[in-house]
Amino acid sequence: MPHETLLPEHLFLNPATIQAPPAPQAKIESPAELPSPETEFESHTEQNPPETEIQASVQASDLQAEPLENLSEAPEDTASTSGFAALKLAKPVLEAVLASGYEDPTPIQASMIPHVLAGKDVLGQAQTGTGKTAAFALPLLSRMDSRNHSPQILVLAPTRELALQVSDSFERYGAKLPGLKITAIYGGQSYGPQLRDLRQGAQIVIGTPGRVMDHMRRGSLDLSNLQALVLDEADEMLNMGFAEDVEWILSQTPEARQTALFSATMPPEIRRLARKYLKDPVEIALAAKTTTADTIQQRFWIVRGLSKQQALIRLLESEPIEGVLIFVRTKDATIEVAQRLENAGYKAAALNGDLPQNQREQTVERLRRGKLDVLVATDVAARGLDVERISHVINYDVPFDPESYTHRIGRTGRAGRSGEAILLIEPREQRLLSTIERATRQPMTRMFMPDAESLNQKRVERFKSRISQARKLPQLEYFREMMLNYAQENEVPLEEVAAALALLVQGKTPLLLPPDPPGLQADPDLSQRVRKDKFSRERSPKNDSEMGLVPYRVEVGRIHGLRPSMLVGAIANEAGVDSKFIGKIKMHDTYSVVDLPLALEKHFFKALAKTRVVNHPLRISRLGKSNAFTESAPRSFDKKPKFSPAPKGRPDHAPRAKAGKRGFLGK
């Protein structure tokens, strides 16, 4: 995790003994005074690295709070304390964070955690991946009462993928809290496991608005003792048509709860929610400023069907590498990945903060002199690294923020040389791509997995090259005579002797990869096939013909309780289609018609085969061209269609996926 300059010391006060910080003090904006969406945040700028600005409105007198249980004790000399230890987290939470390999908080964490610890409502503007999940998870875990076995913390997320990611983060950071129970609830999963978790006393609930509301209506989710509620990616929830659901949930929870709202943007609807449901919130905005050298070609690889380590080895085999710098998040990962590469025959080494300074310098010097080809490093350990022969920077793990990404890939493409920056991502992480492109102002090109056949051809060519090089060695004559004698004595042909020698040289490592299993090389991801470079166009397609849309019929309609936003969400979630590529929707009583990209043909039906919306299977089918339609149904914030049930009575539906790909993974 990258080191960041922490905020001034007075923001890291122990909530049990808070003193007012020295003047000047910035005035907190009450909900009624929150600026309009056209107004920039009125706030003061904290000290941070030159490429990141933290803007925060703080009223220190409002930071008074009751003493928190299990808080790590404040050191006598706070100036000598840094990293997460300076944030006064509960001891078990701090231990879990440090055990995960994370050392220092990101800017959003350093500025947000003290206020959440103090029980304040917060309004945070930050992209996913800046570390905002930890910014609310760590202090909320520190504040909760592990003896209370009713839901104390509720996190609302727009998609089941994000809900699961947030749940994983809470599990990791709360690993040392005794008796902690966490559950994720979302549409598309049967109620059984969710009901069991809730009955067993889940204290932290993370879910999508639709399924959370359903459990509340059923009486299986009792929020009467709720202490804190988090709206994560609030703008996405509203974009996907969750506005009514979110407001209904907020209205059913205790008014005394603590509320945290995070959003990448601040449209009018978010401002309205903040004014209505947050109490004198501390407002913190993270603004990123990044640029990327034109000499660096940026690519990404969506890893499917292989482990990341297998994907990395295939990548290294297929690229004309010289020196390679691989970035991972934790110290343990540097050792694990480097060891795997060494086993695969690469000259690789780990570079992390646990290495003594002299050993780090020796390792970097080996890379500089060509005695080492691959360096696996954390952001912290690679600071200041300047090795001209680095041809590739590979982001094995997704960086926490755009600034970290830019700093990472800046290690290549130096001294007028070209460089390659490659990002390995999993399918659930695809939404980070648009954030990187916005931050770097450069497009990224998708690359595809080299198949086993092409890699085997490369391996054979390399083996033949080794033979050619060996033939030039002066010792060859002695071995020639030896092999001739062996062939004569054993009456075997020379080609059989040569084959045996080749096998002997190769050792236990197979020369060839086994054939790829069927389906391993997936079709290009739909969202990338239809997505266009944001920086090479000024507008989106205006009509269906421009986008290549064709009509599809689904066997769910008004009488089933379907709303257009439900259909958009289900298709986006299950097929991975960005909502801007979902066209017109026309709803009928018993069925609906939706325009979708023609590029879906190859894998769309498989992805949606088991999808259910409002507890009915979609049973999607392609309509003929003569059945195309032009009338558009209302979506998102448009008026409700007729027969659309109110939120309180709406039946369960499949989870709605995030419309666009925004931000990084919050950790």
UniProtKB/TrEMBL annotation:
Biological processes annotated in GO: cellular response to cold; ribosomal large subunit assembly; RNA catabolic process
Gene Ontology MF, one: ATP hydrolysis activity
Keywords of this entry: ATP-binding, Cytoplasm, Helicase, Hydrolase, Nucleotide-binding, RNA-binding, Stress response
The Helicase C-terminal domain, residue ranges: 307-455
Polar residues bias locations: 46-55
Catalytic activity: ATP + H2O = ADP + phosphate + H(+)
Location(s), subcellular: Cytoplasm
Top-level EC class as recorded in UniProt: hydrolase
Domain Helicase ATP-binding: 113-284
Domain of life: Bacteria
GO cellular component terms given for this protein: cytosol; ribosome
Transmembrane segments: none
Regions of compositional bias (Basic and acidic residues) in chain numbering: 526-545
Annotated ranges, domain DEAD-box RNA helicase Q: 82-110
Enzyme Commission number(s) of this protein: 3.6.4.13
Main localisation: cytoplasm
Main function: DEAD-box RNA helicase involved in various cellular processes at low temperature, including ribosome biogenesis, mRNA degradation and translation initiation.
Homology family: Belongs to the DEAD box helicase family. DeaD/CsdA subfamily.
Name by which UniProt lists this protein: ATP-dependent RNA helicase DeaD
Underlying gene: deaD
